[in-house]
Amino acid sequence: MIIKKEFIPGTSRARCTFDSGTVLESQLVFLTTEQWKRLRVLGALHDMRISAVIGRLIDNAVIAAKTL
Fold it and tell me: CA 36 to CA 44: how far, in whole Å?
């Protein structure tokens, strides 16, 4: 359960603190209609929620950046 949610001033980010002590940050994502459609297709193909698809894409980008 979330026990504290705060928005980070000057950003489109939020920080959630859970009763377990876990702290997660969220980021608003702004995409075009076509990009959202592509995300929905990827999610359907892999049986994943859109947020999970975005997370996987970010992870892959980080890995790719480390290999440069």
Answer: 12
- Residues 23, 43: Cα–Cα separation, whole Å: 26
Torsion angles phi and psi, residue 31, rounded to 5: -130, 160
CA 41, CA 48: separation in Å to the nearest integer?
10
pLDDT (0 to 100) of residue 16: 92
The alpha carbon torsion through 19, 25, 30, 36 (nearest 10 deg) reads -60
Cα–Cα distance for residue pair 35/8, rounded to 1 Å: 26
Characterise 47 by phi-psi region: left (phi > 0), alpha (psi -120 to 50), beta (else): left
Q: What is the pTM of this model?
A: 0.60
Percentage of the chain lying above the pLDDT 90 cut? 63
